[in-house]
Amino acid sequence: MSPYFQDHMPGNVCFGCGMDNQDGLHIKSYWEGDLAICEWLPEEKYHGWANLLSGGILGTIIDCHCMGTAMADAYKSEGRALDSAPYYRYATGTMNIKYLKPTPINQTIRLVAEVTERKGKKIVMKCTSWSGDVQTAEAEVIAIQVFNSDASKDKNPFVK
């Protein structure tokens, strides 16, 4: 079984994390103990200012990393594998980002997410962004469970 959260989200067409989006960013997240890690090397086309990553792209990868983390954490808290049913999906409730330093575009970005609270369908996380040993951003992200494969799919805008 793949350790990457996104490999266990079939049909995911999201720009940031969807493996089924040929034009997407294709981030990959995995557990390192209780921390969720994502390492992603930007391409030049994602620059904001010259040599710097666009803040919107950084926000996108933080968002997608945290939604994958929420899903994986729910499975982990239930003591089950990423490829086991029922399947859950999460959407962003809120995301507050503080941009601390410019993020260079020519080196790998490391995201580190930690779950700080679980309450019903809500998972709260802290996520930091690193370029080398420089922290470039920090975020608080709230994920809300919007899909459970065991529940009715009627009137759910997240399911075709």
Can you summarize the main beta sheet? 6 strands, antiparallel
Q: Could you tell me the mean pLDDT?
A: 94
Radius of gyration: 15 Å
> What is the straight-line distance between the termini?
26 Å
- Percent of residues in β-strands: 35-45%
Structural class: mainly beta
Query: H/E order of the elements?
Result: EEHEEEE
Number of helices: 1
What fraction, in percent, of the residue positions are helical?
Answer: 10-25%
Low-confidence stretches: none
Widest beta sheet: strand line-up: 1-2-4-5-6-3
Tell me the total number of β-strands: 6
Task: Outline the structure in words.
With 160 residues, the chain is mostly beta strands. The chain contains 1 helix and 6 strands; from the N terminus they run ββαββββ. It has one helix spanning 55-77, and strands at 29-32, 35-40, 88-99, 109-119, 122-131, 134-148. A 6-stranded antiparallel sheet has the order 1-2-4-5-6-3, covered by helices on one side. A hairpin with a 2-residue loop joins strand 1 (29-32) and strand 2 (35-40).
